[in-house]
């Protein structure tokens, strides 16, 4: 059975800007999926049914293969759903375009723009006054939201600095990739993956009331960026209505996943790969896999199936069977469990 014949389940919540990247990607490529909506704080018992401890959103399953981190999710969808009449490509086609696409991904995700946007949320938002939310995000970020229940964004010097970083990112897009008046980042007839990579942080923070003061960011200052966001919003909203996903609860999602085949072959462990060699890892070893920036306290524990320079795959025991959990090498690490320790 090929991947396009397997059920896709997306675990996410409405206001997750990272999850929107995946929703837009799936809809723009006409890839059908169902969604299992989650609370924006722990616990998430629906995810726990799969035996998964990972706490970040989104999580996407294709059959019984479960993928963590939006970058890996998009990479796997590219691989498992090659361009076709049913699922047209939205990826860059030339070397120059691929470079722009990849650099925009890094710029928004890894250079600090997303972090700056996230810590620019105004303390007047109702959610920022919710003790449960603040406690959850403090644990998630390792205390980055503050101590004693007080969010760090209330510190006077921090928020203007972060807003400035977001403003500078918008200014860069206005004066570079959109400067010649093109409608889309790569000069294509419609939005592409490069547009998703460039827009997701800015669109999210720009729609939150009070997050960005008008004197810093506005349609008057950056008309090309705001016109681009309006075009993008119209297209993706229309696509979302056209491809409205079925909503399933946790039990229904688990039934679909455990009742499906695997999307990929089991894979192998490259024992000569740098971390595999350093830790003496072999196929079948008990391991833990976890992100190294946020959510580090929530580790996947299972049997190592595959390891290479791009990803790590562990077999995890869920409520009704096993799933294979895929994590990227970038931003994640792995540790070996002592032989006598129980999985």
Helix content: 25-40%
Residue-averaged pLDDT, rounded?
Answer: 92
Main sheet, how many strands, which sense, barrel?
Answer: 10 strands, mixed
Summing up helix and strand content along with how strands pair, one would put the structural category as alpha/beta
User: What Rg do the Cα atoms give?
Assistant: 21 Å
Might you state the CATH topology name of the largest domain?
Answer: Glutaredoxin
What sequence of helices (H) and strands (E) makes up the elements? EHEHEEHHHHHHHEHHEEEEE
Shape: globular
Low-confidence segments, given as residue ranges, are 143-154
Strand content: 15-25%
- β-strand number: 10
CATH first level of the largest domain:
Alpha Beta
Please describe what this structure looks like:
Residues 10-83 form the GST N-terminal domain. Residues 117-239 form the DUF7962 domain. It holds the Pfam family GST_N_3. This protein is α/β, with parallel strands linked by helices and 343 residues long. It folds into two domains: 3-85 and 245-336, 3-Layer(aba) Sandwich (Glutaredoxin), CATH 3.40.30.110; 95-232, Glutathione S-transferase Yfyf (Class Pi), Chain A, domain 2, CATH 1.20.1050. Helix content is 37%, strand content 16%. It is built from eleven helices and ten strands. It has a ten-stranded mixed β-sheet, with helices on both faces. Helix 1 (17-28) runs antiparallel to helix 8 (193-206). The longest helix has 20 residues, at 223-242. It is globular. The model is unreliable at 143-154 (pLDDT under 50).
């Amino acid at each position: 059975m090929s991947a396009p014949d397997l059920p896709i389940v997306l675990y996410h919540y409405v206001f997750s800007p990272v999850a929107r990247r995946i929703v837009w990607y799936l809809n723009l490529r006409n890839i059908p999926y169902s969604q299992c909506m989650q609370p924006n704080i722990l616990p998430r018992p629906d995810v726990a049914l799969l035996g998964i401890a990972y706490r970040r959103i989104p999580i996407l399953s294709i059959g019984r293969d479960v993928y963590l981190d939006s970058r890996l999710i998009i990479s796997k969808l590219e691989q498992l759903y090659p361009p076709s009449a049913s699922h047209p490509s939205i990826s860059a086609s030339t070397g120059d375009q691929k470079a722009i696409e990849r650099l925009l991904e890094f710029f928004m995700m890894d250079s600090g723009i997303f972090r700056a946007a996230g810590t620019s949320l105004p303390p007047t938002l109702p959610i920022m006054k919710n003790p449960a939310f603040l406690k959850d995000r403090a644990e998630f970020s390792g205390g980055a939201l503050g101590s004693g229940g007080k969010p760090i964004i209330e510190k006077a010097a921090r928020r203007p600095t972060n807003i400035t970083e977001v403003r500078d990112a918008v200014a860069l897009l206005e004066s570079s990739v959109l400067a010649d008046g093109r409608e889309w980042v790569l000069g294509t007839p419609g939005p592409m993956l490069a547009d998703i990579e460039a827009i997701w942080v800015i669109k999210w923070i720009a729609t939150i009331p009070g997050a960005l003061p008008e004197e810093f960011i506005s349609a008057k200052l950056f008309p090309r960026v705001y016109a681009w966001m309006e075009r993008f919003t119209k297209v993706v909203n229309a696509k979302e209505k056209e491809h409205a996903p079925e909503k399933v609860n946790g039990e229904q999602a688990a039934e679909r996943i455990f009742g499906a085949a695997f999307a990929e072959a089991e894979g192998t462990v490259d024992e000569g790969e740098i971390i595999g060699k350093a830790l003496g890892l072999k196929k079948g070893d008990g391991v833990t896999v976890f992100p190294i920036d946020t959510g580090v306290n929530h580790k996947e524990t299972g049997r190592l199936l595959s390891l290479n320079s791009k990803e790590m795959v562990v077999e995890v025991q869920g409520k009704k069977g096993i799933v294979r959990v895929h994590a990227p090498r970038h931003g994640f690490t792995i540790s070996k469990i002592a032989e006598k320790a129980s999985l």
